[in-house]
Amino acid sequence: MRNNRRRVIVLKNYRLETEVIHKGYDSQSFQGSLTPPLFQSSTFTMKSAEQGERRFAGEEEGYVYSRLGNPTVTVLEERIAELEGGEAGLAFSSGMAAVSATLFGLVRSGDHILVSEGVYGCTYGLLELLKDRFNVDYDLIAMDEEDHIRSYIRPETKVIYVETPINPTMKLVDLELVCKLGKEFEAKVVVDNTFATPYLQRPITFGADVVVHSATKYISGHGDVVAGLMVGSREFVNEVRMTTQKDIGGIISPFDAWLLIRGLKTLPVRMDRHCTNAVKIAEKMKAHPKVKDIIFPGDDQFPQAGIVKSQMKQAGGMISFLIDGGKETAQRFMNELQLIKIAVSLGDAETLIQHPATMTHSVVPEEKREKMGIGPELIRLSVGLEAWEDIWADIEQALEKI
Ligand code: 3LM
């Protein structure tokens, strides 16, 4: 944070569990306030007209207007950059604001984006919008085989965009492989790290250029904020800050940034519990005769278990599963739940359940949905922080009723 008071520069390289609590904030610069102050101010006063001129000309550092920067938001941006291992961070009003500002910052008319076969429904919507209105083409492809990926790369391919784990099919993308191809073909690799969070997976350490997040999810962790984050090189972050973010305007509110700073402090402890709860629930589900299949990266028979091992610290807190009987049975099962809430979003303290084909991914045309692996039998569970025995008891009683 910029401030005239005594500033203690902390040079130590702490571990992630420490940086989620301390990075980007020096309490002694702010009258000893343990928590970063909330600068709930739209604008910043100048000492003189000349100072205003210098700040607008970029000749003097300092805050001007909260669409261009805000001290509370700066703490969050420095913190997420450190956690992801990138040079700089940028906060947004939603995950989609982060995804759209990133893509608008990277592509021009005539370019091509290579996309993992399966992305969040509104990211798919954005790709369609880019194609229809801005002449930016894209291909959704399985990214398991190197030769298959290579066969889709063209001279116009400027971005490789992946989610891993993919929402909601839980397929993984090998980050080392896509980053290698990105470098070879000079395409920027963008990774949506929402499902894993930097605690479980750090794409930049594999060579990714940009990481985006729906901070609405695990980073907030409490279901009370809609926000997005992006991390990349200082040059790219500055460019997005001063172009696609400044002029399109999807900035985070200082209060929401403050809530995310608070949420981030407990990210590692929350993630540990989400992950251990998910392992327990997945084991129980797998053994239940009414569950046709589970798709969970923590399962020892998960087909991409090798990728979990090579790039994730733990398998995460999301489980997708199938029960026989199509949409009607899936909905009947969901309606029988008592503790678990039917809601989109994920990563909250509360266990949430949703039906992707009719909810989060309903905007994706059926034939593309099927290709992504999102059929009417698929149900997505965001395992919360409750006692796993209570979560399982609720699932079990609902399964018994169908
Ligand atoms: C959901 N997902 O329930 P926001 N990237 C990923 C996401 O999962 C999401 C975004 C970006 C869900 C939201 S559906 C109406 C609710 C991997 C969001 C976009 O703009 O913060 O919602 O993030 O899967």
UniProtKB/TrEMBL annotation:
<protein>
    <recommendedName>
        <fullName>L-methionine gamma-lyase</fullName>
        <ecNumber>4.4.1.11</ecNumber>
    </recommendedName>
</protein>
<keyword id="KW-0456">Lyase</keyword>
<dbReference type="InterPro" id="IPR054542">
    <property type="entry name" value="Cys_met_metab_PP"/>
</dbReference>
<comment type="similarity">
    <text>Belongs to the trans-sulfuration enzymes family. L-methionine gamma-lyase subfamily.</text>
</comment>
<keyword id="KW-0663">Pyridoxal phosphate</keyword>
<dbReference type="InterPro" id="IPR015424">
    <property type="entry name" value="PyrdxlP-dep_Trfase"/>
</dbReference>
<dbReference type="InterPro" id="IPR006237">
    <property type="entry name" value="L-Met_gamma_lys"/>
</dbReference>
<dbReference type="GO" id="GO:0018826">
    <property type="term" value="F:methionine gamma-lyase activity"/>
</dbReference>
<dbReference type="InterPro" id="IPR000277">
    <property type="entry name" value="Cys/Met-Metab_PyrdxlP-dep_enz"/>
</dbReference>
<dbReference type="InterPro" id="IPR015422">
    <property type="entry name" value="PyrdxlP-dep_Trfase_small"/>
</dbReference>
<dbReference type="InterPro" id="IPR015421">
    <property type="entry name" value="PyrdxlP-dep_Trfase_major"/>
</dbReference>
<dbReference type="Pfam" id="PF01053">
    <property type="entry name" value="Cys_Met_Meta_PP"/>
</dbReference>
